[in-house]
């Protein structure tokens, strides 16, 4: 048997198709760059919970009371700057994502939290209109979700 | 080159609280200018926060993160005087790294 060839095949198996395509110059540079930087382009172009979950590689998330919104308003006067704070009380929280149902693309941000980083963070997002906002938490390989409706009196995506 | 980030890193008990304010347009690619032409998307895609060579937060952002993004989080460990390094990369491939000392 040709051991070297086997090695090459085995190692090659770990490289994603996208990376191979990018290396071969088949993907437009923007896509290739996004891939190289670890940006999940597919996940940021989704329009529904199901699509987003598929792009993130998860199943249907379970509703959870252990995922809570903190210092997040019920009514945002300005949709261009909506403060969102999310805290997960689930052990082994690995990542937290913010999804906004009625935005042109649902996924707003994903935060990967290595062990030692507290599963609590806050940021600011844009919202085009009044919408449900989902906090999606991945903990120990499983997905949990909590939602909150935020009313927007002035949209943040209009021109 | 973009303006520097404003970073505050404070030791709180056994954890370090990091607050960052970045300077970036975060253009969505949805808006149109006065001639009706779409303004191309321009936004930060990835953010990495590193403490002592260890990544303590890795984020992927879409254009829905607000202009001049704000981010606050805490990680365990980190002593006063340690450095916290934050890097972002946008969809044009521009990047910026700034550093703060834990106080």
Figure out the total of helices of chain A: 4
Q: What overall geometry of chain B do the principal axes of the alpha carbons give?
A: elongated
The CATH H-level homologous superfamily of chain B: Immunoglobulins
User: Biggest β-sheet of chain B: count, sense, barrel?
Assistant: 4 strands, antiparallel
CATH class of chain B: Mainly Beta
Indicate the structural class of chain A: alpha+beta
Average of per-residue pLDDT values of chain A: 82
What series of H and E elements makes up the topology of chain A?
HHHHEEEEEEEEE
Distance between the termini of chain A: 64 Å
* Largest interface, chains and sizes: A-B, 40 and 35 residues
Low-confidence stretches of chain B: none
The major beta sheet of chain A can be summarized as: 6 strands, mixed
How much of the residues of chain B is beta strand, in percent?
A: over 45%
Specify the helix fraction band of chain B.
under 10%
Average pLDDT of chain B works out at: 93
CATH fold annotation of chain B: Immunoglobulin-like
Helix content of chain A: 10-25%
- Identify the overall geometry of chain A: globular
Describe this structure in words.
The complex is a heterodimer of chains A (159) and B (103). Chain A is of the alpha+beta class. Chain A folds into two domains: 3-36, no CATH class; 47-152, Immunoglobulin-like (Sandwich), CATH 2.60.40.2470. Chain A is built from four helices and nine strands, in the order H-H-H-H-E-E-E-E-E-E-E-E-E. In chain A, the strands form two sheets. In chain A, strands 1, 3, 5, 6, 8 and 9 form a six-stranded mixed β-sheet that branches. In chain A, strands 2-4-7 form a three-stranded antiparallel β-sheet, with no helix packed on it. Chain A starts with a helix and ends in a 7-residue tail after the last strand. The mean pLDDT of chain A is 82. Chain B is mainly β and 103 residues long. The model of chain B has no long low-confidence stretch (mean pLDDT 93). Classes of the chains: A alpha+beta (159), B mainly beta (103). The A-B interface holds A 30, 33-34, 37-40, 43-44, 80-83, 100, 103-105, 107-114, 116-118, 120-127, 156-159 and B 15, 26, 28, 30-33, 45-46, 54-67, 69-77, 89, 91, 93. Strand 6 of chain A pairs antiparallel with strand 4 of chain B.
């Amino acid at each position: 048997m040709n051991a070297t060839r086997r090695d090459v095949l085995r190692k090659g198996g770990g490289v994603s198709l996208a990376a191979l395509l990018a290396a071969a110059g088949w993907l437009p540079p923007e896509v290739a760059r996004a891939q190289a930087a670890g940006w999940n382009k597919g996940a940021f172009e989704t329009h529904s919970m199901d699509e987003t979950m598929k792009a993130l590689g998860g199943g249907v998330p379970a509703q959870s009371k252990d995922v809570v919104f903190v210092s997040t308003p019920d009514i945002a006067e300005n949709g261009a700057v909506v403060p969102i704070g999310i805290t997960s009380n689930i052990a082994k929280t690995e990542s937290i994502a913010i999804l906004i149902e009625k935005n042109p693309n649902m996924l707003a941000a994903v935060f990967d939290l290595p062990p030692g980083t507290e599963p609590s963070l806050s940021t600011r997002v844009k919202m085009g209109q009044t919408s449900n906002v989902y906090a999606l938490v991945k903990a120990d390989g499983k997905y949990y979700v909590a939602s909150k409706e935020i009313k927007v009196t002035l949209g943040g995506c209009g021109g | 080159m973009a303006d520097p980030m404003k970073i505050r890193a404070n030791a709180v008990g056994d954890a370090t609280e990091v607050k960052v304010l970045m300077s970036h347009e975060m253009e969505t690619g949805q808006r149109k200018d006065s001639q009706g032409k779409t303004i191309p998307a321009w936004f930060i895609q990835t953010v990495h926060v590193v403490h002592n060579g260890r990544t303590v937060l890795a984020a992927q952002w879409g254009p829905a993160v607000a202009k001049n993004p704000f981010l606050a989080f805490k990680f365990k460990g980190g002593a006063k005087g340690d450095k916290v390094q934050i890097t972002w990369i946008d969809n044009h491939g521009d990047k910026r790294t700034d550093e703060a000392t834990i106080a």
